[in-house]
Hints:
Layout: H1 2-21, H2 27-46, H3 49-66, H4 68-75
Amino acid sequence: xxNTLKWLGTLTLIVGVGFNSLNIYPLGPLIMCLGGVIWxxxxxxxREYSIIITNSVLxxxxxxxxxxxxxxxxxxxxx
Length: 79
């Protein structure tokens, strides 16, 4: 199961990077976020905290960079 998820996450990130290089917005950053979430799940299943932390930070930073208006909804806590 984790082997399939890690390759799915990798493929998703590669597709997202390809979309970004072709200026397909906002689909590129959204696909990259999905790949990051998949890798966070894999890291949790492996209990590998370096993967969890790295992909959590990257998954939260992609919307913050790609869409500053939407970043407040992703980063700020709900009151």
